[in-house]
Design a protein that fits this description.
The chain is mainly α. It is built from 17 helices and 2 strands. The protein has one domain.
Length: 397
Amino acid sequence: MTNSQRPYGNSRTPLPPGQTPADGPPASRTGPQKDARAEPGGKQRDAFFDNAKYLAIVLVALGHAWGQILDDGPVETAYRLVYTFHMPAFILISGYFSRSFDLRPKHIQRLITGVVVPYVVFETAYSLFERYGNDQPDHAVSLMDPTYHLWFLCALFVWRLTTPLWRVIRHPIPVSLVLAALGSVSPQIGSDLELQRVLQFLPFFVLGLTLRPEHFQMVKRRSVRVLSVPVFLAAVVTAWWTIPRMQIGWLYHSEAAEQLDAVWWVGPIMTLATLACSLVMTICFLAWVPRRHMWFTTLGAGTIYGYLLHAFLVKAGGYTGFFAQPVLHEPLGVLGLTLFAAAVVTLMCTRPVQRALRCVVEPRMDWAFRRDAGEAARVFEQPRPVEVRTPGEKASV
């Protein structure tokens, strides 16, 4: 996938509507689709993107579970492989469905209700869980230091706000790569709001902003699927080879080169190299995502719930010493943990969970915002349709 077209301006392909990340990427409105399904509001969801989001969230849960039992063997090989593309895929799709985002009040409101509110609620909840569940009475609640996986909400907030900037500059992808490289040589950035990850993962969000539906059609070609098989196998061998030779922190993109015990000039090289590998693996992943409606397709609309909730179990396992059990380092134990993690995050994406937690994940907060007078005026001024009647009847306007 390349930036081979002008990403903005007059385009014949309509952009998907801006939507809160809490519901995940909305369906692409590119016309009637064979695999699309209707939503209550009359919208169409693309099965391909919902399938991709579900599979990605399962990989996120597996990665977090495997991360507790790394053994310099098959588990760490799988862990490193998954970490090359599961979050890049999420970020790229998020960028793709942010193309219509601007600073209109309704979009800012969605950003607040879909990103800021869930972040505040769950950051507070995880901090309290750390304090009482792990017997850490001095553990403070800090919104500036995201817990574990919540960095993604901080990053998404910043990326969305900067979307208008990427829409006006001439070469957005090269600029984002420069910023990512600069981040890798700037240890003084610190950990506040995980700004290192905001910068180093930025190119995937910007790439998503530049993509159009036809680029995803290219990824779905049979030739790409076939080619992805040897690429995937090569990636497995490479992941195994890097275990004693490369720190896993390079895949987290959360620290600068000096913090990873490397000289400063290694930072840009490793950052750009790992981003390139992540892009290749993301393409391979998307190539094998089913395009038709599957049994798990409807779960794609609830991936944010699984993302926000599954870490409670991961942390609880760490607090109680569950992951220290010797059986989890045996093949059957690893298999059992893998199936358990996949099943739990799947349940967390179901509609009952969505209904129970929608008040904090996707809250309706009309009471908190002023009414957009300009938008109301535009709606009021829209002409009403004229009803045409046959001669002899009165026409109503």
